[in-house]
Amino acid sequence: MAAEQAPAAAGPHLPGSSAPSVSFELDGQRACVPAGSTLLQAILERHPAFPHVCYHPALGPIQTCDTCIVEADGRRVRACATPVQQDMCVVTDSERARAARREAMDRLLRDHELYCTVCDNNNGNCTVHNTALALHIEHQKYPFTPKPYEQDNSHPFYRYDPDQCILCGRCVEACQNLQVSEVLSIDWERERPRVIWDHDVPIQESSCVSCGHCVTVCPCNALMEKSMLGEAGYLTGLSPKLLERMIHLTKVVEPG
Amino acid sequence: MARVRRTKTVCTYCGVGCSFDIWSKGRTILKVEPSMEAPANQISTCVKGKFGWDFVNSPERLTQPLLRRDGRFVPVSWEEALAFTASRLRKLRAQYGPDAIGYISSSKCTNEENYLMQKFARAVMGTNNIDNCSRYCQTPATEGLRRTMGYGGDTGSIHDIAQADLVVVIGANPAESHPVLSTRIRRAHKLHGQKLLVADLRKHDLAARADLWLRPRPGTDLVWLCAVTRYLLEQGWVDERFLAERTTGLAELRASLAPYTLAYAEQVTGLSRRDLLRTAEMIHAAKRMCVLWAMGVTQHRGGSETSTAICNLLLVTGHVGRPGTGAYPLRGHNNVQGAGDMGCAPLYLPGYERVDDPAVRAKYERAWGVPLPENPGLDNHLMVEAIHAGKLKGLYIMGEEMALVDSNANHVQAAFRKLDLLIVQDVFFSKTAQFADVVLPACPSLEKDGTFTNTERRIQRLYKVFDPFGESRPDWQILCDLARQLGADWRYQHPSDIMAEIASLAELYRGVRYDRLEGYRSLQWPVAENGIDTPLLYTERFPFPDGRARLCPVTWQPPQAFAAEYDVHVNNGRMLEHFHEGNLTYRVPGIAAKVPQPYVEVSPELAAERGFADGAKVRLVSPFGEVELRATVTDRVQGNQVYLPMNTWRDHEAVNYLTSSECDEVTHTPAYKEVAVRLEVVEPSGPSPVVHGNFRLGHPHPQRGVEVERKWQRPDYRPLVDEPPQV
Amino acid sequence: MAEPIASIERQTPPAAVEQARARARLGALLAAAEPALAEGLQLLQQCSEAGLLQLATGLMQEGEGLLEILVKQADQPGGAQLLKNMVALVQVWGQLPPSLWTHLQAGLEAASDAAQRPPTEKPGLRLYWQALRDPDVAAGAGVMLALLRGLGASVRSHAQPGPRKG
Lengths: 256, 727, 166
Description:
The complex is a heterotrimer of chains A (256), B (727) and C (166). With 256 residues, chain A is an alpha+beta fold.
């Protein structure tokens, strides 16, 4: 992992733990957390809507999205990967920290076509949508550009839409280090990176065991259960052509 | 989304007991959504739990009661079916006595349903002839645990397994049988330095990753376990204090282990001295060890003895009663633990109290208001024998495909033909139902409320997602209807009423209440009156009068010998994609497309020797029957050992036409793993049965994770964080 | 004594059973909701007489076709901009204090009254000087000036440098 080695994600938090604690300063207030906590864990306890996209409690810090950046002792760091140190001085609402988080989100949206109004994943728990809201994104800095890949619909239960993929890597982490079937990876060296199965074969031809971890952790609609498509959005049952026009229109009207 | 409902349920596909929300609209399942709150699995699932529920809407579901009439099954109303069933039961009992009828409960049904089934058998019908299929799998382990430690359940939780320094897996394939549990082992092994020791005939997922993989001769695990235990004692590599303060019987154990020298173990098991020593060293080096085992241990004639040997090893090394340690016989079904807890056994009432104990019987007679039978009844194995002997005339089977999952299927089906009355209650028209006189349509888990108890002794609530399909009814309701037809005053309105009664009688469940199990909350028994549960057993004492565990000498049962012509050994077990004989999973189109049928795994050596290739059709013939199906050639198996999955309902390929009626002496668990056949080549080649879409054709791509440093190396990446200060 | 029978008689299709149950449930619901239903029926009757029901039915039947027309319209060059402006307007609306509307409303009411009465005074500069000394008018003028000031400031800050007007 990166230079900032974070503690690995623990299992369910055991109550009544007698682990030592650490005290530090968070936005001018004194705060106390169990030793080994990361800044993000400490912040989320107090502000559950604090932006973060790639971090997941079952997976630990992944550090691909950069949307959780705060200032710790004057330096910009990823909150997810920074352990809380005694007497650390942390500022989340400085101009520099805010600007970094905004920029990070803008970069994610370059890889994601926004059509939340009509999206099947927008049921209140879409991480990308909710984080964009939390960051008050009104104007998309980098226009979305489509990826040079087709959707992969080969698997009977789920599909991958590269156009929607923000390359957060949650699916890869889940497959490599939680399910540990070690099927998914991101090919970072390509012009336009994407998630690949095995050494880049269609999903149905890969060693995917269909466990579902990747679809469960995907923070947007890039990886979706096929049974959700066209069923859960507000505008179920419209003809695909009409839906496409609406997506196009929404894309024009929504931030961007 | 007003129309989308989210309902919590507990999976029915294995003993891990994953819980998650089902998102649904009308009768359509939109998705399965696990969350961090789920106590056993958090966000993890496997193919069956995440994608395997389409069967609830299958047009093949039983929707009406059926009666056998003039050589046909005819749909009838519930009134008629219940009246018929009650009347026939009454007549049979009057003519031959209550012990002429047997009752088979289901490890897939809820605790409440299991409780009612044994109450029906005992309080309404007057017999202790009640059993369930846990006898086919983990009863030997339960026996081993009860002998040595006191409780018949896993000693800790999945979390403990993840925390261990050393995980030993014997005769189990968690990657395919308990997938979510196996993820914790793989993760700990890959990321946190956990050591893995596997003993198995077959190169399965964990065996391929293991730090040490033992491949002993079939059925010889007890020998190497005893040899290693003896060696550890000899070296003093034991927990002296634990032995002195918390156990009894060390001297006898030591004496009984004398014959198990390393040389003897080498000779019997085929393992090398080096491997045996390494095993001992790995165990010695571990501060926290968990031993997991399953059917490779229990489904042998010596299953109870081997399970006891495992417990002895854990006690001698002091790996019991501490976090990250313990004994984990992996329960295969979602409610195998619960079926046993609820007393669906010929010798036990709920909570494992004995039926032949007058005080216990008195308690239940008071509670149920009727006299109760005092002689232990017949277990499922003995029931089959009793049918053949003409002593058992009737059988009531709930949620069990006994015609295919019992060993020696020909023998069992011949018995069914002799019954005067067979009542089958199920979700689909099973093979077993073909022999019935009346078939009652039941509801699967998604159509009822109740609780299951998983392999962690964890009791969890499931909530009704859909209304019953057609005229099917929840099993608990059918039992109530039938009981009332027979004159019993059963007035349960909801499964919570049944659990209230269970809690008042079974000590282990004393504090269990539905409000304490709301949402994702769970309780691991024993649960005290005040609701405090017990995630980890034996932290202070063992439930024997002196509070100490009992080391227990064991005797090795060599596996069955077969005539020389049966020279191929048939290992058998599960596949990831399917559950049991597949009545549910083959009705999920996506799963059926990936694995449309089972196939036998054959080693390259054997295929070469017998002159056939991948895709060949082979016939396997045992003294008891035969099967015919396609083979795949793989190095997952070696030499003369083949592997035949049990996942099929089709007669020509069902493994139990090959198995015998031999069983574990103590528990009568069938020796499913002691099968020998002769192999005949029907077609030397053909289309591979491992079809496009089967994950075993793929090639994984292991990485350390997402490897974000490679993103940061990209020329178009400008960092948003500041460099860390130079140290 | 039973030989296995591998097939079963065709069962009543679940759909028929389900329909029967649905009818039974519906019957129960109807009975329970009788008073509300009676009122509801009256309302429907009135809507029908006013021609509203016909309009609604027509719109629903057009359904997707109508939506298609709307979308097509909105998709015209000015359409997206119009929608954007509407969205922006609603957003701004949401941010203004409610008291402002109260004041505006008072102003509009006064203007409305005045518009209905014939003018009583001769218009002239003297009238306006006097009016400005009226504290209410002065306050109103202040608001108008602030509006001009804010509008102008925004225009100037976004203005592209262009040919200077003489």
